[in-house]
Amino acid sequence: MFNLLRMDLYRIKRSRSVYVCFGLLLLASAATFFMVWLFETPQGCEVAVKLGFDLSADEIIKESGTIAGLDMLGLYRQMGLNGGNYNVIFGIWLMLFVCMDYQSGFMKNTMALHENRALYVGSKIAAAGIVSLCYLVGQYLFVLFLDGVFGKVVAAAGILDVAYYISWNWLMTTAFGALMLLVCILSRSVAAGALAAVLFGTGSIVMPVYMLLDKLHIGGWLKYSIYVTMSTAPDHYASSGDVYVYAIGAGFLAVYAGVAAFVLKRQDI
Fold this sequence. Notes:
single chain, mainly alpha, 13 helices, globular
């Protein structure tokens, strides 16, 4: 598997899609940060008025300093992890990376050399985990940079809270990557993979089902889905009960990876 992983990482390093998708994450982060600064800080409100926004006096007169009730992790969360935008962009990158194996003929060559097809699944998930970790950390560092440029808009977060939040989101996004890998193996289609990234990443499938079953009082289990967990799980570590997010992420990762390996083993490449 390590030879496959080394080859995957080499291909990722030389591909454009991984950098384009990361650039989209940073662009979305910058846009979100600017909007928060524009409407939630005194300096920003003054700029908003000059730009033609109609703000009331109460909206313009605000105390200087950081935004009340929002810290760095809360802002970072609003930049994509909460609404699923991160998973959509990450899922689209992974879809392009995996589907290219089928389109280029690389898949047939790989399967001819490696009889154990689970090694392919393991390599792809490991590569997805490495990319997701780079994305998550890189995006957070970019938000810190923006906060410094705009003059400390939000309160800082503790290093342990940052490690807790990024670590469980890394596990959850890697599990989402395993789901995307399964979709790509089943469909071998760029269009199907992109559609799955959008539908699963934004909760367009999970949330309607969740609300419907919740009205019937049988939808409680869906609060442990990847999308709902990423939207509702805590930012900060408060007690030992908060480690449940790791169990959810590890569980989904194991299930999707196992099913992907089983399906690939049965497929005629």
